[in-house]
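Can anyone check this?
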Amino acid sequence: MYVPFDEMPKEARVWLYPYAESFTEEEIKEANVDIKNFVEEWLSHGQSVKGSGTILFGRILCLTADEKSSANVGGCSIDSSTRFITQLEKKYNKQKSDRSLVVYQISGTQSDVIGFRDLSQAVQDGKLNKDTLVFNIQSENIADLDAAWIPLSESAYSRFV
C-alpha cells in the first residue's frame, strides 16, 4: 500500500541507494510514479507492504516500509525491491547503485559524489574538508534522514581521510 513519502511515520525503515549520476527533474517525476506503482504491488509473505519511496537530493533512491503497521520486509520482498531497482537503473540508464559512493553537499539541495577511497586525496586537494557535509547512507529510518547530513569529520568516512 503506497503512502506519500512525507506521510510515512518517522520509524519507517529505509533503504538507500546512491548513484554517481544524478537524475534529471523529468526522470525524478517519472521515477516517483514507477516507485508508487512498485510499492502499490509490494508484498511480504503475501501481505501488502505499507511503504513509499522517492529520489532524495537528485541521486539517492530511497525506499521505505512501515513495518509496524504492515508486514516485515525481508527475503522475497527484499528480492522484489532489488529487481525493481535494477529495472529503474535500466530504464533511466543509471550505473548500478554503489554504496562505496560518498554523497556530499555542494550547497543547499545540490550534491555530488566521490568514492570513499578518493576522500583523502580530495581533502588534500582542498575539494573537501572536515566540515564538508556528507550524507549518512547508513540511516535506518526516516527519523535518521532528518539528521543525515553530517560533517565529514563526524561520519563513518572520517577514517578514510
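Reply from J.R.: I decoded it. Residues 5-91 form one domain.
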